[in-house]
């Protein structure tokens, strides 16, 4: 069920250039299930900034009723978020949307992420591993300074890193790595910039894949029609990223 | 006991609070969060004759204390609204105000005729003011004579009272209000969004794919309040006021300025529970202010 | 080196930044804080033929990301401005844009004729849009024909180029802009404030003694930007843009939308150093964006 | 000279019902001179709330470069101010306006204050005392819970308190006390609600008096004409509270 809760900030860390890891606690965590779902965060009690910010759930700890978000503090709202300290409260609406269908993977899955699309793949990797699925992580970042969670992913499976400037791992995009890897997986899951999602679908036309999309949002729950995309189904068909997604099977969304 | 009820043409409201059109879909999403029967009424998303896909994305952008939207009247079309959305809403004890949009007078007439037959539709809200459609919409709301004739045409076919939704993007909103009054409108809803724009300073490109969008939220409240005040002073029509309402004192302001009921739009996105929260706080706030009923408060700014 | 200069009729600006009329008095107060010669220009407070006392207080009220004002054109009158305020400003190396207001065409003509003779007045800004005066002012700005004739009359007597300041409280701002273009205007300044209102929820009384006031500040920026974009697309006149500018990226936005220079109003109250701060930051920001001059940036949103 | 400075919060205390005492530090204090001057405070970096708040200087400590404000946290801006803690910074513009002319008092002065008009009288009392002037303090508050600085004023001279509800001192307004006191002073200084200032002027038509006025402000420095009052001088004469005042001789301002 979707809840709105003033959650307690437990920890906030700067983990890479402009990247923060924020852990909060509250009973809303009881409602969380699928990796790839997101929350809609109100960063201040003021109406400036007005809108909530959609942030993916990066990892869930049901026992301690905590979950973690990883975000880039770039614009006005996320910068305010980055000022929160342990003990502060933030207003969280969630969990929202439909996440990655972990039950679709059979033996081995590719998890392909770019930049701030990487965070939801971490909870996904954890859940897949606990189901006995082997995960391979192909992660793209701007530069060495922007990389986060490399060790954490490595602990869960093979991890390949690409950086645009070549300062760490393969130089270029995740697709450069994909070209080198055997297609020995049954399912892929991907989250990142739209161009990356396009490239990944292009690379594996025969595979079962699931992609997480981004759109500017208003309500975050399906009521305002801000976040729609057309689909391949028909001329008049469309989906809402916030409530029908953000995760969709490959080949469905026209982005 | 504080009397929270409001009676205006077609509507016996248990309280004066309702979500504004386009900010609440057809109710399904918010129904996951709370019982919609608490609401005074629901203004559903604009309905057009045909299914509409609306504008390309991005469709929303944030501004200082406000937001721009250019959804472009996306909706499943008259048939689907009549056969599926409205029947679904019947499970709640809440009157529906159907928001009607179109490109030609014939469009408006067709939607108004059909949708007003639904048992739970107690009033129509004729959206002559949407800034996000290229044809029709906007001119209906800016020319008094055109607005009057459209009102007449819709009144002729509607089975329920007709409220006209005014655009704030006009030189003289009172002249439009008077024109729709002449045309036989039963009430007015106001205001729709102000036409605005945001650019990305990095690229110079408009953030909204449609280039311009409608500005809503707390930023526009002073303009909305001024217009409600002017129109309520110069026409006899009941007004459902809106524009930037986020809390109970905003509601007090709109009622004071002359609105009989108040709609909440953008604030639903910020706090999805805003409508029931305001409804919960209203009786105590009225009591603090020394009023026993909503009715007493309506238009008090004119009586000072 | 980034070229910060801008050349528009009557004005050779060392940079495109100037304080907006009414938000900077006649410069004396801000001169205590920094050297006014840094500014691109100064738009001084509206000047009328006679001394004006303006409206009763309270004259200002805060709103979400904005403020309302109803100063009501208070000013010491033409004689005092000509004999005392303008000569005092001569100590600074900065062109003055004199804001001219009145109730009748004759008023405007008289002020324009006299004030345009001052050596440091390089342009006039004809305020046909002040929402806070009861007679005259507002109608001049909302009727294209009236605006055109006023422009003609003022042009006839002015010794310097004439900019007309447009009101945003109109259905079709482009039609007003075109009318003043026909009337011979040398440029446009826009926007003035949006007409708004605030009530005290405790009493229901308007907070501003004048009941309504003009809304300014970040809240109105989306409306201002949209109007500048539209007018710059449909007329040939240079535009000095304003409305909610608080930082360097707001300036970038207005230039991108088609303004040749940018005025800063309300933000001076929040940060009295805002103009020199923006001027300081502009060259670097231009450099970051890959531009060598202000000129290149002007209107880039239309060229995408 | 007027300066704008990000000053450091040294201390914030709740000293009466809704009343806070805020001490800040910075070189702006070097510019402070007259009691009765005020500062214009920006309570947040956001533009919501937009305008600065005018607050009187309640006491000045030049040596430690600190000054104190006492304010009622009632509306949106002052409530945000009340959340500031030691170590935070606030943006202060000041000192502004013209204060009480201490040199006008000869031997004995009445200091008459009401509610949040009381704070500037404290620095005034200190300065008068240090010039050897005897000060009598007549202070009005809503109720016992709203009283502040009673002991501090007592330490500087005779202090009489009135409360509207009679919960402490004389029941009623400061004028009730004034009626009882001998007119054995040469100068009075007053700050408080306009009705009180009127009553005080009415009570002492023959005395030299100085009154501090309040008006809604925009700029705070004299440029915007928000804060004007007409004067008794002529039909067209007016003053600006922010830059010509807030303190004016009795008999000048039409309020
Ligand atoms: C389903 C979903 C999950 C996301 N998960 C993450 C995550 O885990 N970590 C992370 O860093 N980012 C994530 N994002 C992107 C994140 O929402 C934006 O980076 C953030 O909203 C930008 O806010 P701001 O205050 O920094 O920028 P501002 O420029 O102040 O934002 C202005 C407005 O634009 C919206 N906006 C700006 N950029 C984006 C964007 N890329 N996507 C959607 N809206 C945007 C904001 O929400 C806000 O309404 C996610 C987006 C979506 C849709
Ligand atoms: C010269 C001067 C000195 C002052 N000194 C003090 C002081 O030492 N301690 C103190 O508690 N108060 C003082 N005040 C009053 C103080 O400025 C207001 O209480 C405060 O601005 C209210 O802000 P808010 O955020 O609580 O209210 P809001 O309702 O959020 O304020 C909205 C707007 O109205 C203005 N406003 C509201 N009330 C007043 C008022 N009474 N006077 C002027 N503007 C107002 C605010 O500044 C703001 O612009 C002084 C006022 C002036 C003019
Ligand atoms: C996302 C969005 C969609 C809207 N869609 C409609 C619509 O379909 N029909 C309509 O009459 N008004 C529509 N509006 C306008 C609102 O109903 C309301 O008039 C306006 O937003 C002002 O109120 P607010 O400031 O409370 O949002 C929409 C507003 C928003 C923000
Ligand atoms: C207090 C105040 C006084 C103003 N006085 C005038 C004036 O005398 N003449 C005029 O043309 N505009 C006047 N304006 C309008 C501004 O010049 C400007 O057009 C408007 O405020 C929008 O810009 P901003 O959002 O940067 O303030 C005034 C604005 C304010 C806030
Ligand atoms: S954000 Fe409102 S429908 Fe998706
Ligand atoms: S507040 Fe601007 S002149 Fe006094």
TrEMBL record, chains A, D:
[2Fe-2S] cluster binds at residues 219, 224, 227, 242. Binds 1 [2Fe-2S] cluster per subunit. Binds 1 FAD per subunit. Keywords: 2Fe-2S, Electron transport, FAD, Flavoprotein, Iron, Iron-sulfur, Metal-binding, Pyrimidine biosynthesis, Transport. CDD domains: DHOD_e_trans. Residues 2-102 form the FAD-binding FR-type domain. The keyword Flavoprotein applies. FAD binds at residues 53-56, 70-72, 77-78. Pathway: Pyrimidine metabolism; UMP biosynthesis via de novo pathway; orotate from (S)-dihydroorotate (NAD(+) route): step 1/1. Its cofactor is [2Fe-2S] cluster; FAD. The keyword Transport applies. Heterotetramer of 2 PyrK and 2 PyrD type B subunits. Belongs to the PyrK family. HAMAP family: DHODB_Fe_S_bind (MF_01211). Responsible for channeling the electrons from the oxidation of dihydroorotate from the FMN redox center in the PyrD type B subunit to the ultimate electron acceptor NAD(+). PANTHER family: DIHYDROOROTATE DEHYDROGENASE B (NAD(+)), ELECTRON TRANSFER SUBUNIT (PTHR43513), DIHYDROOROTATE DEHYDROGENASE B (NAD(+)), ELECTRON TRANSFER SUBUNIT-RELATED (PTHR43513:SF3). This is Dihydroorotate dehydrogenase B (NAD(+)), electron transfer subunit. The gene is pyrK.
UniProtKB/TrEMBL annotation, chains B, C:
Residues 5-286 form the Dihydroorotate dehydrogenase catalytic domain. It catalyses: (S)-dihydroorotate + A = orotate + AH2; (S)-dihydroorotate + NAD(+) = orotate + NADH + H(+). Binds 1 FMN per subunit. Keywords: Cytoplasm, Flavoprotein, FMN, Oxidoreductase, Pyrimidine biosynthesis. FMN binds at residues 21, 45-46, 99, 127, 165, 191, 217, 243-244, 265-266. It is an enzyme of class 1 (oxidoreductase). NCBIfam families: PRK07259.1 (NF005574), pyrD_sub1_fam (TIGR01037). HAMAP family: DHO_dh_type1. Belongs to the dihydroorotate dehydrogenase family. Type 1 subfamily. Its EC number is 1.3.-.-. The keyword Isomerase does not apply. The active site is at 130 (nucleophile). Pfam families: DHO_dh. CDD domains: DHOD_1B_like. Pathway: Pyrimidine metabolism; UMP biosynthesis via de novo pathway; orotate from (S)-dihydroorotate (NAD(+) route): step 1/1. It is found in: Cytoplasm. The keyword RNA-binding does not apply. One of its GO terms (molecular function) is dihydroorotate dehydrogenase (NAD+) activity. Substrate binds at residues 45, 69-73, 127, 192-193. This is Dihydroorotate dehydrogenase. SUPFAM superfamilies: FMN-linked oxidoreductases. Catalyzes the conversion of dihydroorotate to orotate with NAD(+) as electron acceptor. InterPro entries: Aldolase_TIM (IPR013785), DHO_dehydrogenase (IPR050074), DHOD_1B (IPR033888), Dihydroorotate_DH_1 (IPR024920), Dihydroorotate_DH_1_2 (IPR012135), Dihydroorotate_DH_cat (IPR005720), Dihydroorotate_DH_CS (IPR001295), Dihydroorotate_DH_I (IPR049622). Heterotetramer of 2 PyrK and 2 PyrD type B subunits. Its cofactor is FMN.
